[in-house]
Design goal:
This protein has helices at 47-64, 101-106, 135-140, 146-168, 218-221, 227-237, 254-270; strands at residues 7-10, 14-18, 24-29, 32-35, 40-43, 71-76, 79-83, 86-87, 90-97, 113-123, 132-133, 172-185, 191-196, 204-208. By secondary structure, it is α+β, with helices and mostly antiparallel strands. Strands 8, 9, 10, 11, 12, 13 and 14 form a seven-stranded antiparallel sheet that branches. Helix 1 runs parallel beside helix 6. It starts with 6 loop residues before the first strand and ends in a 17-residue tail after the last helix. It binds adenosine-5'-diphosphate and magnesium ion (MG).
Length: 287
């Protein structure tokens, strides 16, 4: 079936299309990899399939612990249906172990455990190179209101607590990750803050707990090779790759891939889909 869809935005890692219902959009996960504000670029065959599945899985897990997310359902290997939100122009970074720009900026040795998890804000602006900003900058420039910021910080802490335990159980260190949040208005103009964008090895640092082997986008940033293999390892530990899906040369077994849609649909069914139509809030005791 070929349907003409309107492209709303093409970013570095994803394309956003108009969704089938108002208030929804389709996220298409590309194989493109970029780093250092898109100065370094490449195409990594099969990456989009993995980031799509990993993000869908993690968003579903987070919904289950009560984090409101934009995720609605997986559509196919590379696409998911999400609620359209107004993205708050902040990259919210949570760090448990020092790596990346934190090390460069402050001279901390990579791999140092932080005394407590650290939350940082970066102003989402490619032209400015996504600069680090303080909470006070966020308020002063009106990127988010104080109560929105409180909600965002509370969610970021909960997400970190959950993901630390979750990845820890899979023998993976959650070094750091980046989150984006969006605004959604309800029928009575009530505001919801939803977790949006994606959570995948494209925006998390994930190290094997035993060897500290990097299994994330740093393999691309630092030219460590076997980038897609790192992402595959994460997906495999999450139980998302059936035996035989990926062959020796990294090619995808089409027969097994076609069965994946079933798995995706199971995942979508497991999750309680809430109507995107605006309905008045119901009293919890009213069935
Ligand atoms: N639910 C959503 N509704 C609207 N926009 C979203 C949603 N989730 C993510 N986005 C935005 O869509 C874009 C995703 O594409 P991406 O390739 O990551 O772009 P970028 O190059 O800007 O990082 C991002 O700008 C992100 O903020
Ligand atoms: Mg992005």
């Amino acid at each position: 079936m070929v349907t003409k869809r309107k492209k709303l935005y093409e970013g570095k890692a994803k394309i956003i299309y108009e969704g089938p219902e108002p208030g929804t959009v389709v996220q298409y996960f590309k194989d493109d990899a970029t780093a250092f504000n898109a100065q370094k670029k490449d195409e990594i065959s099969g990456k989009g399939v993995l980031t799509n599945r990993i993000s869908a899985h993690l968003m579903t897990k987070l919904e289950a612990i009560g984090i409101p997310t934009h995720f609605l359902k997986s559509l196919n290997m590379r696409e998911q249906l999400v609620r359209q939100v107004d993205i708050i122009p902040l990259e919210v970074v949570v760090r448990n172990i020092a790596a990346g720009s934190l090390c460069k900026r402050l001279g901390v040795k990579e791999g140092t455990y932080l005394a407590k998890p650290l939350i940082e804000f970066y102003y989402k602006d490619d032209a400015l190179g996504d600069p680090l900003v303080s909470e006070d900058h966020v308020i002063t420039f009106g990127w988010a209101d104080p109560y929105e910021l409180e909600e965002i910080v509370g969610m970021a802490w909960r997400i970190n607590d959950y993901m630390n335990g979750f990845f820890g159980g899979l023998g993976i260190k959650l070094v750091d990750f980046k989150l984006e949040f969006g605004r959604l208005w309800g029928e009575f103009d009530e505001l919801y803050i939803l977790l949006a964008d994606e959570i995948s090895p494209d925006n998390c640092r994930l190290w094997d707990a035993k060897s500290d082997k990097k299994l994330d986008k740093d393999r691309f940033r630092q030219d460590l090779g076997e980038v897609v293999e790192g992402y595959q390892e994460i997906a495999r530990r999450l139980g998302l790759i059936p035996e035989g899906l990926i062959g020796e040369g990294g090619q995808i077994n089409e027969a097994i891939a076609s069965q994946l849609e079933e798995i995706e649909n199971d995942l979508a069914r497991e999750r309680k889909l809430r109507s995107v139509k605006k309905t008045p809030p119901q009293k919890p005791w009213k069935s």
